[in-house]
Each structure stands twice: as structure tokens, then as C-alpha cells.
Design brief:
With 188 residues, the protein is α+β, with helices and mostly antiparallel strands. The chain contains five helices and eight strands, in the order E-E-E-H-E-E-H-H-H-H-E-E-E. The protein has one domain. The strands form two sheets. The chain has a six-stranded mixed sheet with strand order 4-3-2-1-5-8. It has a two-stranded antiparallel ribbon with strand order 6-7.
């Protein structure tokens, strides 16, 4: 993999090792976001897990599906399609699996959360979105013991908290004489 940033205007977003982040990606609807999970290993190498449109899902006759981008050497404030990652929210309660193969472990844990349907409309009608997928992934992590001491209701509060963080992060601020959205890296 190249060590060059994918976009010359992109800014590196350092993520802590052995951590779990909710990433909110800006879409053209105010207060709505694309949701993804970033998991880092002990070396801070990130893997992105998300429910999204992608060729593998289409090849299986589905409009969307679970997608994993592995071994990302760095994370920036821009996606590979030049869309702004507006927030990386670290979940402090997360405890990583003891396994050295974190990516494979997560893939097995998240596989099959949703099966998906041939159209996005059918997915939405059935309540299948990137947000609902992520919340189910968090619940699977809780059940597997990665949020010790937290109840399902406590994990469910992450949804509202993330939305509020995203709304604040979505507001442009003045940076070096230019208005821009600054990616927020925070914790809850």
C-alpha cells in the first residue's frame, strides 16, 4: 500500500491502538450521516466495518451488504471517495479481543447481522441502514463481552450521543481564513 495520502487536502486522523470508533461520514442531508465502525489493532492499524453499497453485495443480488476494508495504514478526514469523515468517536468502554487476529474475529462477529434485499427501498422498509447495522454490531460486541458491565440499554445510548456529536461536528468553522468542517475526534 502506498504511504501517500489519497487526497492532498486530506488531514491524518490518528486513532489510538486497540480501540473501537464510530465514524460518522457527511452526506448531503443535514443531521444525517453514514455510519461505520473502525477497529484498531495494537499497532493502530485500522479496519473499517460498515453496511454499504458495494460490488460484492450487488454480485450476490443485494443492494447493500457488510463491507470490510482491512489494514488501513492511516485514516484521514476524507474517505476514498472524497467525502468528509466528520467524527471519529472512541468508545471508552470497549475491550478488544485477546486474539491477535482482531480483523478475522470482528468479521465473524459481524457477518450475518443483516442479509439485505435486492433494493435499497426494501432495506429501508425493513429498517436496514448503516446506522441500524452499526448498532446491532455494537450489541454483538456487548454480548461477546467487549463492553464489560454495560447493559443493552446503555450501549443503545451511544446512538443518540453519536448523533449529537455529529450535529456539532457538521458545523463549519474558520480554519486559516477558510470555512471548513473539522473532523472531530472524541470519546464517550
Amino acid at each position: 500500500m502506498s504511504s501517500a495520502l489519497p487526497d492532498p487536502d486530506a488531514t491524518l486522523t490518528p486513532l489510538l491502538p486497540s480501540s473501537l470508533y464510530i465514524c460518522l461520514v457527511q452526506i448531503p442531508i443535514p443531521d444525517k450521516f453514514h455510519w461505520a465502525l473502525y477497529v484498531t489493532d495494537s499497532q493502530s492499524t485500522a479496519t473499517c466495518h460498515q453496511w454499504t453499497e458495494h460490488p460484492g453485495a450487488r454480485n450476490a443480488g443485494k443492494a447493500e451488504g457488510y463491507k470490510i476494508n482491512v489494514d488501513l495504514p492511516f485514516v484521514t478526514d476524507m474517505t476514498d471517495t472524497n467525502v468528509q469523515n466528520i467524527a471519529f468517536i472512541r468508545i471508552n468502554a470497549y475491550r478488544p479481543p485477546p486474539s491477535l487476529t482482531v480483523t478475522e474475529y470482528m468479521k465473524q462477529l459481524f457477518d450475518g447481522i443483516f442479509e439485505g434485499y435486492p433494493t435499497i427501498f426494501e432495506n429501508r422498509r425493513k429498517g436496514i441502514t448503516c446506522r441500524t447495522w452499526l448498532m446491532r454490531a455494537l450489541e454483538r460486541l456487548r454480548v461477546a463481552g467487549h463492553f464489560p458491565g454495560l447493559s443493552a440499554a446503555e450501549v443503545a445510548t451511544y446512538e443518540h450521543s453519536a448523533i449529537e456529536i455529529g450535529k456539532r461536528a457538521e458545523v463549519p468553522v474558520m480554519v486559516e481564513g477558510n470555512m471548513r468542517i473539522v473532523t472531530e475526534v472524541t470519546a464517550m
